Amino acid sequence: KQEVTQIPAALSVPEGENLVLNCSFTDSAIYNLQWFRQDPGKGLTSLLLIQSSQREQTSGRLNASLDKSSGRSTLYIAASQPGDSATYLCAVGGGAGNNRKLIWGLGTSLAVNP
Amino acid sequence: SAVISQKPSRDICQRGTSLTIQCQVDSQVTMMFWYRQQPGQSLTLIATANQGSEATYESGFVIDKFPISRPNLTFSTLTVSNMSPEDSSIYLCSVGVGAETQYFGPGTRLLVL
Fold this sequence. Notes:
The complex is a heterodimer of chains A (about 110) and B (about 110).
Chain A: E1 4-7, E2 10-14, E3 19-25, E4 32-38, E5 44-51, E6 56-59, E7 62-67, E8 72-77, E9 86-93, E10 102-104, E11 108-113
Parallel strand pairs in A: 2-11
Antiparallel strand pairs in A: 1-3, 3-8, 4-5, 4-9, 6-7, 7-8, 9-10, 9-11
Chain B: E1 4-7, E2 10-13, E3 19-25, E4 31-37, E5 44-50, E6 56-57, E7 68-72, E8 75-80, E9 89-97, E10 101-104, E11 108-112
Parallel strand pairs in B: 2-11
Antiparallel strand pairs in B: 1-3, 3-8, 4-5, 4-9, 5-6, 7-8, 9-10, 9-11
């Protein structure tokens, strides 16, 4: 049974810092891995999607890496801003189409202080 | 992309009652998903609702407790029946776009007293 763990559970940093959020999963037979952002009252926003054959994906100040063999992914946020404050969720996908069920971590609650 | 709205955004209900949550999408989509996010727990998939077929429920979730309707390609409802305080949660609707991407609604925050 796939289990997804995110460390740390909470993080508070001053504005401008570079930071790393960690995600680990127990079964390396994944189809893809996604990072989402959750803002209160606004649902979830997909940040980055990494296919199982890929090593990393980048979008602006965000970079996500995937090491399937070790069951790990990291989300790197460069030059953090107060607007980055949110909960970041990692989700592992087992397939596509009708099999796109996601297994979720508990998330990392990030606070970026001005 | 897809823009998703949910109603109600939040509600407080008495135990034993039922609540129907609506999910509206701004485009036609085949696959819709209903999730639950209980306090301090990760998101859990309740069921997959494809238009034209019965919803497929995940282990631990049953149709009598969480009946789902999917009358067309832009709309779905989830009913939480005979509620108890353990049903207090955020309920999220999402849609599948393309082969893998999912877009999420803002969620419905439910408190059962």
